[in-house]
Specification:
The protein has one domain. Helix content is 50%, strand content 3%. The termini are far apart.
Length: 150
């Protein structure tokens, strides 16, 4: 092969190379493309797509490979974002469970009060003032009591 720009070029000794140019195509397809896949068939291609016969087909397949890679990269990012979403949902559920524990504790106290009232004959009696003040004092709230409650 003496020049890369002949109007028509044919392979000499390699039967694995296809003539890709003709006088009608001009200089659009200057190089030859192998009939078989060099290095084996690409995994991203469907099985019914043959090896490229022209530079345009090879360019399209290259663009297809780049697009397939981009899609896989986007799928990877999506999978990571879904994993983050699941992690944050789990944290939210843990917070909600903690809030539910507080609510359950309050409900247990209410149930205890009602049970005590029922045992006393259905009369719901509030704790005495002295008892309430002692309870508040134990939580750090100090109120001055009149002398008769001390």
């Amino acid at each position: 092969m003496a020049s890369l720009f002949p109007a028509e070029w044919t392979a000499t000794n390699d039967s694995n190379i296809v003539n890709t140019t003709s006088s009608a195509e001009g200089h659009r397809n200057l190089a030859s493309v192998p009939k078989e896949w060099p290095g084996g068939r690409p995994r991203f291609l469907p099985s019914d797509i043959p090896a490229p016969r022209t530079i345009e087909e090879a360019t399209c397949l290259l663009n297809l490979a780049q697009t397939s890679r981009s899609i896989k990269e986007t799928q990877k990012k999506l999978a990571r974002q879904r994993a983050k979403e699941c992690k944050y949902l789990a944290q939210l559920y843990e917070l909600q469970a903690g809030n539910a524990d507080v609510w359950i504790s309050q409900a247990d106290l209410d149930i205890g009060r009602v049970t005590s009232a029922v045992r006393r004959g259905g009369v719901f009696a509030l704790p005495s003032t002295a008892m309430a003040l002692r309870r508040h004092r134990s939580h750090g709230t100090h109120i001055l009591l009149p002398s008769k409650y001390r």
